[in-house]
Amino acid sequence: MSLVPGHLTTAEASVILRCDPATVCRYVRLKLLPHKRLGKNILIPEQAVLNFDAPKAGNPNLQKHN
């Protein structure tokens, strides 16, 4: 259960995005997902999670450039 209405914890967001909670934290750290902090908790707007388009898998720094 979320602490703030309309916001999700990283664990709740990870269930929706079908990824690990650490991946959600990485998206937050890379500023791909907006967030607010409530103490140590990271809260992500629910609408941002529902509209989120995850980046392609793999390290973009290792991909070949043409």
Fold and architecture overview:
By secondary structure, the chain is α+β, with helices and mostly antiparallel strands. It has one domain: Arc Repressor Mutant, subunit A, CATH 1.10.10. It has helices spanning 10-17, 21-29, 46-51, and strands at 7-8, 36-38, 41-45. Strands 1-3-2 form a three-stranded antiparallel β-sheet. A hairpin with a 2-residue loop joins strand 2 and strand 3 (41-45). Helix 1 (10-17) packs across helix 2. The protein is globular and about 35 Å long.
Q: How many separate helices?
A: 3
* Rg computed from alpha carbons, rounded to a whole number of angstroms: 13 Å
- Bin the helical content: 25-40%
User: Which architecture name does CATH use?
Assistant: Orthogonal Bundle
What do the pLDDT scores average to?
87
**Class by helix and strand content?**
alpha+beta
